[in-house]
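User: I'm putting together a small comparison set for a docking exercise, and I want a reference complex before I start. The sequence is below, and the ligand is NDP. Could you produce the 3D structure with the ligand included, as C-alpha coordinates?
Assistant: Of course. I'll restate your input first, then give the C-alpha coordinates for the complex.
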Amino acid sequence: MAELFYDDDADLSIIQGRKVAVLGYGSQGHAHALSLRDSGVDVRVGLPEGSKSKVKAEEQGLRVVTPAEAAAEADVIMILVPDPIQAKVYEESVKDNLKDGDALFFGHGFNIRFDLIKPPAGVDVCMVAPKGPGHLVRRQYEEGRGVPCIVAVEQDASGDAFKLALSYAKGIGGTRAGVIKTTFTEETETDLFGEQAVLCGGASALVKAGFETLVEAGYQPEIAYFECLHELKLIVDLMYEGGLEKMRWSVSETAEWGDYVTGPRIVTDATKAEMKKVLGEIQDGTFARNWINEYNNGLPKYNEYKKADGDHLLETTGRKLRKLMSWVDDEA
Ligand code: NDP
Ligand code: MG
Ligand code: MG
Protein backbone atom coordinates (compact mmCIF):
# COMPACT_ATOMS: atom_id res chain seq x y z
CA MET A 1 0.00 0.00 0.00
CA ALA A 2 1.01 3.58 -0.64
CA GLU A 3 2.74 5.67 2.01
CA LEU A 4 0.69 8.74 3.02
CA PHE A 5 1.90 12.00 4.57
CA TYR A 6 -0.09 14.79 6.22
CA ASP A 7 0.52 18.30 7.63
CA ASP A 8 2.22 16.97 10.78
CA ASP A 9 4.74 15.04 8.66
CA ALA A 10 5.87 18.14 6.77
CA ASP A 11 7.94 21.11 7.96
CA LEU A 12 6.85 24.32 6.20
CA SER A 13 9.92 26.23 7.44
CA ILE A 14 12.15 24.29 5.01
CA ILE A 15 10.54 25.81 1.91
CA GLN A 16 10.13 29.15 3.75
CA GLY A 17 13.92 29.20 4.04
CA ARG A 18 14.44 28.80 0.30
CA LYS A 19 14.01 31.06 -2.73
CA VAL A 20 11.48 29.58 -5.13
CA ALA A 21 11.11 30.25 -8.88
CA VAL A 22 7.89 29.13 -10.54
CA LEU A 23 8.40 29.00 -14.31
CA GLY A 24 5.05 29.35 -16.09
CA TYR A 25 1.81 30.85 -14.80
CA GLY A 26 -0.90 28.67 -16.30
CA SER A 27 -3.20 26.19 -14.63
CA GLN A 28 -0.63 24.82 -12.16
CA GLY A 29 1.83 27.74 -12.13
CA HIS A 30 -0.64 30.31 -10.80
CA ALA A 31 -1.86 27.95 -8.07
CA HIS A 32 1.65 27.06 -6.89
CA ALA A 33 3.00 30.62 -6.99
CA LEU A 34 0.04 32.24 -5.18
CA SER A 35 -0.35 29.54 -2.52
CA LEU A 36 3.38 29.38 -1.78
CA ARG A 37 3.41 33.16 -1.41
CA ASP A 38 0.42 32.99 0.94
CA SER A 39 2.30 30.31 2.91
CA GLY A 40 5.11 32.82 3.54
CA VAL A 41 7.49 31.58 0.86
CA ASP A 42 9.77 33.89 -1.17
CA VAL A 43 8.42 33.39 -4.72
CA ARG A 44 9.21 34.89 -8.10
CA VAL A 45 7.52 33.90 -11.36
CA GLY A 46 9.61 33.30 -14.50
CA LEU A 47 7.94 34.25 -17.80
CA PRO A 48 9.38 35.35 -21.14
CA GLU A 49 8.91 38.91 -22.44
CA GLY A 50 5.53 39.20 -24.14
CA SER A 51 3.98 36.28 -22.23
CA LYS A 52 0.20 36.53 -21.98
CA SER A 53 0.35 35.37 -18.36
CA LYS A 54 2.63 38.20 -17.20
CA VAL A 55 -0.07 40.83 -16.65
CA LYS A 56 -2.15 38.38 -14.63
CA ALA A 57 0.74 37.38 -12.37
CA GLU A 58 1.65 41.02 -11.74
CA GLU A 59 -1.98 41.98 -11.07
CA GLN A 60 -2.06 39.24 -8.46
CA GLY A 61 0.89 40.85 -6.72
CA LEU A 62 3.70 38.56 -7.84
CA ARG A 63 7.10 39.67 -9.04
CA VAL A 64 7.72 38.52 -12.61
CA VAL A 65 11.19 38.24 -14.11
CA THR A 66 12.52 36.27 -17.10
CA PRO A 67 12.83 32.49 -16.66
CA ALA A 68 16.65 32.82 -16.66
CA GLU A 69 16.61 35.56 -13.99
CA ALA A 70 14.16 33.55 -11.89
CA ALA A 71 16.34 30.44 -12.12
CA ALA A 72 19.45 32.46 -11.25
CA GLU A 73 17.87 34.08 -8.17
CA ALA A 74 16.20 30.97 -6.83
CA ASP A 75 17.49 27.76 -5.26
CA VAL A 76 14.25 25.82 -5.84
CA ILE A 77 13.09 25.94 -9.47
CA MET A 78 9.65 24.55 -10.29
CA ILE A 79 9.09 24.01 -14.02
CA LEU A 80 5.39 24.47 -14.85
CA VAL A 81 5.50 25.28 -18.56
CA PRO A 82 3.85 22.84 -21.03
CA ASP A 83 5.63 19.45 -21.07
CA PRO A 84 6.74 19.55 -24.76
CA ILE A 85 8.67 22.82 -24.26
CA GLN A 86 10.20 22.08 -20.86
CA ALA A 87 13.45 20.75 -22.36
CA LYS A 88 13.90 23.95 -24.39
CA VAL A 89 13.18 26.17 -21.37
CA TYR A 90 15.63 24.07 -19.33
CA GLU A 91 18.42 24.36 -21.96
CA GLU A 92 17.90 28.09 -22.55
CA SER A 93 17.10 29.41 -19.10
CA VAL A 94 17.73 26.92 -16.30
CA LYS A 95 20.76 24.74 -16.98
CA ASP A 96 23.43 27.42 -16.68
CA ASN A 97 21.75 28.88 -13.61
CA LEU A 98 21.84 25.68 -11.54
CA LYS A 99 24.29 25.49 -8.66
CA ASP A 100 25.11 22.50 -6.46
CA GLY A 101 22.56 22.42 -3.66
CA ASP A 102 19.74 23.79 -5.81
CA ALA A 103 16.58 21.79 -6.39
CA LEU A 104 14.72 21.26 -9.65
CA PHE A 105 10.99 20.59 -9.27
CA PHE A 106 8.36 19.27 -11.68
CA GLY A 107 4.57 18.85 -11.68
CA HIS A 108 4.77 15.83 -14.00
CA GLY A 109 7.61 13.38 -14.62
CA PHE A 110 7.59 13.24 -18.44
CA ASN A 111 10.83 15.10 -19.20
CA ILE A 112 12.86 13.35 -16.52
CA ARG A 113 11.41 9.88 -17.17
CA PHE A 114 12.20 10.08 -20.89
CA ASP A 115 15.66 11.73 -20.43
CA LEU A 116 14.69 14.94 -22.23
CA ILE A 117 16.09 16.88 -19.27
CA LYS A 118 19.28 15.59 -17.63
CA PRO A 119 19.99 17.61 -14.47
CA PRO A 120 23.54 17.71 -13.04
CA ALA A 121 24.42 15.41 -10.13
CA GLY A 122 24.59 18.18 -7.49
CA VAL A 123 20.91 19.16 -7.55
CA ASP A 124 17.85 17.57 -5.98
CA VAL A 125 15.22 16.49 -8.50
CA CYS A 126 11.70 16.31 -7.07
CA MET A 127 8.09 16.15 -8.18
CA VAL A 128 5.03 17.64 -6.49
CA ALA A 129 1.99 16.87 -8.62
CA PRO A 130 -1.46 17.83 -7.37
CA LYS A 131 -4.12 15.32 -8.44
CA GLY A 132 -6.40 18.03 -9.76
CA PRO A 133 -6.47 21.02 -12.08
CA GLY A 134 -4.70 24.17 -10.92
CA HIS A 135 -7.85 26.19 -10.33
CA LEU A 136 -9.15 23.58 -7.90
CA VAL A 137 -5.73 23.46 -6.18
CA ARG A 138 -5.85 27.21 -5.61
CA ARG A 139 -9.51 27.34 -4.56
CA GLN A 140 -9.08 24.51 -2.05
CA TYR A 141 -6.01 26.23 -0.59
CA GLU A 142 -7.92 29.50 -0.17
CA GLU A 143 -10.73 27.64 1.58
CA GLY A 144 -8.29 26.11 4.06
CA ARG A 145 -8.34 22.69 2.44
CA GLY A 146 -6.13 21.03 -0.16
CA VAL A 147 -5.97 18.74 -3.17
CA PRO A 148 -4.06 15.47 -2.60
CA CYS A 149 -0.59 15.53 -4.16
CA ILE A 150 1.81 12.86 -5.24
CA VAL A 151 5.44 13.47 -4.42
CA ALA A 152 8.60 11.83 -5.75
CA VAL A 153 12.35 12.21 -5.59
CA GLU A 154 14.39 11.21 -8.63
CA GLN A 155 17.75 12.47 -7.38
CA ASP A 156 18.58 13.10 -3.73
CA ALA A 157 21.79 15.14 -3.90
CA SER A 158 21.25 16.90 -0.57
CA GLY A 159 20.09 13.85 1.36
CA ASP A 160 16.98 15.83 2.35
CA ALA A 161 15.14 16.09 -0.98
CA PHE A 162 12.02 14.27 0.23
CA LYS A 163 11.65 16.61 3.24
CA LEU A 164 11.99 19.57 0.87
CA ALA A 165 9.35 18.15 -1.48
CA LEU A 166 6.95 17.49 1.42
CA SER A 167 7.52 21.03 2.65
CA TYR A 168 6.70 22.40 -0.83
CA ALA A 169 3.56 20.23 -0.93
CA LYS A 170 2.54 21.71 2.43
CA GLY A 171 3.03 25.20 0.98
CA ILE A 172 0.36 24.57 -1.67
CA GLY A 173 -2.03 22.84 0.74
CA GLY A 174 -1.35 19.27 -0.42
CA THR A 175 -0.57 17.80 3.00
CA ARG A 176 -3.91 19.09 4.36
CA ALA A 177 -5.54 16.46 2.15
CA GLY A 178 -2.71 13.89 2.06
CA VAL A 179 0.40 13.26 0.01
CA ILE A 180 1.25 9.92 -1.57
CA LYS A 181 4.84 8.92 -2.25
CA THR A 182 5.56 7.71 -5.78
CA THR A 183 8.42 7.69 -8.30
CA PHE A 184 8.89 9.69 -11.51
CA THR A 185 8.58 6.43 -13.44
CA GLU A 186 5.33 5.33 -11.80
CA GLU A 187 3.70 8.77 -12.05
CA THR A 188 4.64 9.32 -15.70
CA GLU A 189 3.77 5.87 -16.99
CA THR A 190 0.45 5.56 -15.13
CA ASP A 191 -0.57 9.13 -16.05
CA LEU A 192 0.04 8.55 -19.76
CA PHE A 193 -1.64 5.15 -19.67
CA GLY A 194 -4.70 6.44 -17.80
CA GLU A 195 -5.29 9.34 -20.16
CA GLN A 196 -4.75 7.24 -23.30
CA ALA A 197 -6.47 3.97 -22.46
CA VAL A 198 -9.28 5.07 -20.16
CA LEU A 199 -9.91 8.74 -19.48
CA CYS A 200 -9.45 10.49 -22.82
CA GLY A 201 -8.66 7.97 -25.56
CA GLY A 202 -10.74 5.06 -24.28
CA ALA A 203 -13.73 7.18 -23.25
CA SER A 204 -13.87 9.24 -26.50
CA ALA A 205 -13.55 6.15 -28.68
CA LEU A 206 -16.29 4.36 -26.72
CA VAL A 207 -18.67 7.33 -26.99
CA LYS A 208 -17.99 7.75 -30.73
CA ALA A 209 -18.43 4.06 -31.52
CA GLY A 210 -21.70 3.87 -29.57
CA PHE A 211 -23.05 7.02 -31.22
CA GLU A 212 -22.09 5.81 -34.72
CA THR A 213 -23.69 2.39 -34.10
CA LEU A 214 -27.05 3.97 -33.24
CA VAL A 215 -26.96 6.53 -36.07
CA GLU A 216 -25.93 3.92 -38.67
CA ALA A 217 -28.90 1.82 -37.51
CA GLY A 218 -31.19 4.73 -38.39
CA TYR A 219 -31.80 6.31 -34.98
CA GLN A 220 -31.82 10.12 -34.71
CA PRO A 221 -28.41 11.68 -33.90
CA GLU A 222 -29.99 13.84 -31.17
CA ILE A 223 -31.27 10.78 -29.33
CA ALA A 224 -27.94 8.96 -29.84
CA TYR A 225 -26.09 11.99 -28.43
CA PHE A 226 -28.13 11.93 -25.21
CA GLU A 227 -27.73 8.16 -24.75
CA CYS A 228 -24.02 7.88 -25.54
CA LEU A 229 -22.45 11.17 -24.41
CA HIS A 230 -24.69 13.39 -22.30
CA GLU A 231 -25.72 10.72 -19.80
CA LEU A 232 -22.13 9.63 -19.27
CA LYS A 233 -21.66 12.47 -16.79
CA LEU A 234 -24.35 11.09 -14.51
CA ILE A 235 -22.68 7.68 -14.50
CA VAL A 236 -19.16 9.05 -13.96
CA ASP A 237 -20.35 11.29 -11.10
CA LEU A 238 -21.80 8.24 -9.35
CA MET A 239 -18.56 6.27 -9.86
CA TYR A 240 -16.54 9.23 -8.54
CA GLU A 241 -18.70 9.44 -5.42
CA GLY A 242 -18.96 5.76 -4.61
CA GLY A 243 -17.21 3.55 -7.12
CA LEU A 244 -18.89 1.05 -9.44
CA GLU A 245 -20.96 -0.06 -6.43
CA LYS A 246 -22.78 3.27 -6.04
CA MET A 247 -23.34 3.60 -9.79
CA ARG A 248 -24.90 0.12 -9.92
CA TRP A 249 -27.00 0.85 -6.84
CA SER A 250 -28.37 3.98 -8.49
CA VAL A 251 -29.19 2.74 -12.01
CA SER A 252 -32.12 0.40 -12.73
CA GLU A 253 -31.74 -3.37 -12.28
CA THR A 254 -32.11 -3.68 -16.04
CA ALA A 255 -29.19 -1.32 -16.60
CA GLU A 256 -27.15 -3.18 -13.98
CA TRP A 257 -27.84 -6.54 -15.63
CA GLY A 258 -26.84 -5.08 -19.02
CA ASP A 259 -23.66 -3.76 -17.45
CA TYR A 260 -22.66 -7.27 -16.27
CA VAL A 261 -23.51 -9.18 -19.45
CA THR A 262 -22.62 -6.64 -22.16
CA GLY A 263 -19.63 -4.71 -20.73
CA PRO A 264 -17.22 -7.65 -21.16
CA ARG A 265 -18.43 -8.08 -24.78
CA ILE A 266 -17.40 -4.48 -25.54
CA VAL A 267 -14.11 -4.31 -23.64
CA THR A 268 -12.85 -7.79 -24.46
CA ASP A 269 -9.67 -9.77 -23.84
CA ALA A 270 -8.47 -8.36 -27.17
CA THR A 271 -9.02 -4.80 -25.85
CA LYS A 272 -7.02 -5.62 -22.74
CA ALA A 273 -4.25 -7.17 -24.86
CA GLU A 274 -4.11 -3.89 -26.82
CA MET A 275 -3.97 -1.95 -23.53
CA LYS A 276 -0.89 -3.99 -22.60
CA LYS A 277 0.70 -3.06 -25.93
CA VAL A 278 -0.12 0.61 -25.31
CA LEU A 279 1.50 0.36 -21.86
CA GLY A 280 4.56 -1.30 -23.43
CA GLU A 281 4.96 1.58 -25.89
CA ILE A 282 4.72 4.07 -23.02
CA GLN A 283 7.30 2.15 -20.98
CA ASP A 284 9.82 1.73 -23.82
CA GLY A 285 9.61 5.42 -24.80
CA THR A 286 7.95 4.91 -28.22
CA PHE A 287 4.95 7.07 -27.35
CA ALA A 288 7.09 9.90 -25.95
CA ARG A 289 9.44 9.86 -28.97
CA ASN A 290 6.55 9.96 -31.45
CA TRP A 291 4.77 12.74 -29.57
CA ILE A 292 7.86 14.96 -29.27
CA ASN A 293 8.60 14.44 -33.01
CA GLU A 294 5.02 15.37 -33.88
CA TYR A 295 5.25 18.47 -31.65
CA ASN A 296 8.58 19.56 -33.13
CA ASN A 297 7.25 19.05 -36.70
CA GLY A 298 4.50 21.60 -36.06
CA LEU A 299 1.68 19.17 -35.10
CA PRO A 300 0.47 18.11 -38.60
CA LYS A 301 -1.33 14.89 -37.53
CA TYR A 302 -2.57 16.41 -34.28
CA ASN A 303 -4.31 19.16 -36.27
CA GLU A 304 -5.70 16.63 -38.74
CA TYR A 305 -7.24 14.50 -35.94
CA LYS A 306 -8.59 17.59 -34.21
CA LYS A 307 -10.28 18.81 -37.39
CA ALA A 308 -11.77 15.40 -38.23
CA ASP A 309 -13.33 15.00 -34.78
CA GLY A 310 -14.50 18.63 -34.72
CA ASP A 311 -16.55 17.98 -37.87
CA HIS A 312 -17.96 14.64 -36.60
CA LEU A 313 -21.77 14.40 -36.40
CA LEU A 314 -21.44 13.70 -32.67
CA GLU A 315 -19.89 17.14 -32.16
CA THR A 316 -22.12 19.11 -34.52
CA THR A 317 -25.17 17.49 -32.91
CA GLY A 318 -23.85 18.24 -29.44
CA ARG A 319 -23.17 21.91 -30.17
CA LYS A 320 -26.79 22.30 -31.21
CA LEU A 321 -28.27 20.36 -28.27
CA ARG A 322 -26.21 22.01 -25.56
CA LYS A 323 -27.82 25.34 -26.49
CA LEU A 324 -31.13 23.85 -25.30
CA MET A 325 -29.68 23.13 -21.86
CA SER A 326 -29.20 26.38 -19.98
CA TRP A 327 -27.43 24.59 -17.10
CA VAL A 328 -24.69 23.15 -19.30
CA ASP A 329 -21.72 25.48 -19.20
CA ASP A 330 -19.87 25.47 -22.52
CA GLU A 331 -17.21 27.97 -21.39
CA ALA A 332 -13.62 26.69 -21.58
P1 NDP B 1 -0.46 25.64 -18.92
O1 NDP B 1 -0.50 25.35 -20.38
O2 NDP B 1 -1.74 25.91 -18.21
O3 NDP B 1 0.48 26.91 -18.66
C1 NDP B 1 1.69 27.10 -19.27
C2 NDP B 1 2.34 28.38 -18.76
O4 NDP B 1 3.69 28.39 -19.25
C3 NDP B 1 1.69 29.65 -19.28
O5 NDP B 1 1.69 30.60 -18.24
C4 NDP B 1 2.60 30.07 -20.41
O6 NDP B 1 2.59 31.46 -20.62
C5 NDP B 1 3.94 29.65 -19.83
N1 NDP B 1 5.00 29.53 -20.80
C6 NDP B 1 4.94 29.19 -22.11
N2 NDP B 1 6.16 29.18 -22.65
C7 NDP B 1 7.03 29.56 -21.67
C8 NDP B 1 8.42 29.76 -21.60
N3 NDP B 1 9.20 29.58 -22.68
N4 NDP B 1 8.97 30.14 -20.41
C9 NDP B 1 8.21 30.33 -19.31
N5 NDP B 1 6.87 30.17 -19.33
C10 NDP B 1 6.29 29.78 -20.49
O7 NDP B 1 0.33 24.44 -18.22
P2 NDP B 1 -0.18 23.46 -17.06
O8 NDP B 1 -0.27 24.21 -15.78
O9 NDP B 1 -1.35 22.68 -17.55
O10 NDP B 1 1.03 22.41 -16.98
C11 NDP B 1 2.26 22.69 -16.33
C12 NDP B 1 2.84 21.41 -15.79
O11 NDP B 1 1.96 20.90 -14.77
C13 NDP B 1 2.99 20.29 -16.82
O12 NDP B 1 4.15 19.58 -16.49
C14 NDP B 1 1.74 19.43 -16.57
O13 NDP B 1 1.92 18.09 -16.97
C15 NDP B 1 1.63 19.54 -15.08
N6 NDP B 1 0.30 19.27 -14.52
C16 NDP B 1 -0.80 19.93 -15.01
C17 NDP B 1 -2.03 19.72 -14.45
C18 NDP B 1 -3.19 20.55 -14.86
O14 NDP B 1 -4.16 20.57 -14.11
N7 NDP B 1 -3.19 21.27 -15.97
C19 NDP B 1 -2.24 18.72 -13.37
C20 NDP B 1 -1.01 18.15 -12.86
C21 NDP B 1 0.19 18.40 -13.46
P3 NDP B 1 1.69 32.20 -21.78
O15 NDP B 1 0.54 32.80 -21.06
O16 NDP B 1 2.56 33.24 -22.36
O17 NDP B 1 1.30 31.14 -22.78
MG1 MG C 1 -1.79 13.64 -17.97
MG1 MG D 1 -31.09 4.95 -20.64
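The longest helix spans residues 232-250. The domain at 4-183 is CATH 3.40.50.720 (Rossmann fold).
User: Thanks, that's exactly what I needed.
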